Write a sequence for this structure.
């Protein structure tokens, strides 16, 4: 929620994680995952405010909310994939992390197809 | 409320580590393994629960359905 809470949480988790990694590395990784989840949960309330602002701006500029929705979905996918891939990489599973990122890229591309099609369509209309 | 979860997981980790060490010292290797696995499962249960909470929240905020 507030920045000092997040920094404090991160520092405490770091210290505990360093101690825990020597005796139980498997639980240390899960502790890291939990801390990442909690930090994102704390920050998501503010993200919602930003998204509401963007939606308001888009409404005022008469941009179709369809495109804004696509962009939001892409941001969500990118965040989730980054979250998963980073944790896999921390645990030493670099190959798995790369696969997760590749899957995210493919699904982002699939979501972006309508936008690409619209751009191409307007380009074709510009060229006589 | 969420900070308690981190402390719970850290406590379980320390407890499991010390318990496994004690059991190892007293020559009960299989019991130490069982304790380790039980600790991992309990922590995984907590982590998966909060992860599902995170995923539903992300889905609702970014309108991913």
């Amino acid at each position: 929620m507030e920045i000092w809470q997040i920094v404090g949480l991160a520092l405490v988790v770091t210290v505990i994680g360093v101690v825990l990694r020597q005796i139980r590395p498997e639980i240390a990784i899960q502790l890291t995952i939990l801390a990442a989840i909690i930090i994102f949960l704390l920050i998501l309330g503010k993200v919602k405010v930003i998204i509401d602002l963007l939606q308001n701006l888009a409404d005022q500029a008469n941009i179709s909310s369809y495109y804004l929705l696509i962009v939001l979905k892409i941001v969500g996918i990118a965040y989730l994939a980054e979250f998963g891939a980073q944790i896999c990489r921390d645990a030493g599973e670099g190959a798995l992390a790369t696969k997760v990122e590749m899957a995210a890229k493919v699904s982002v591309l699939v979501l972006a197809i309508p936008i690409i099609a619209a751009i191409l369509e307007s380009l074709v209309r510009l060229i006589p | 409320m969420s900070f308690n979860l981190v402390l719970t997981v850290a406590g379980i980790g320390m407890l499991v580590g010390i318990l496994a060490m004690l059991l190892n010292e007293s020559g009960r290797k299989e019991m130490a393994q069982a304790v380790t696995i039980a600790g991992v499962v309990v922590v995984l249960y907590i982590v998966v629960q909060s992860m599902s909470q995170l995923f539903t929240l992300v889905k609702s905020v970014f309108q991913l359905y």
Summary: The two ends of chain B are 28 Å apart (CA to CA). Residues 29-61 of chain B form the longest helix (33 residues). Residues 2-61 of chain B form one domain.
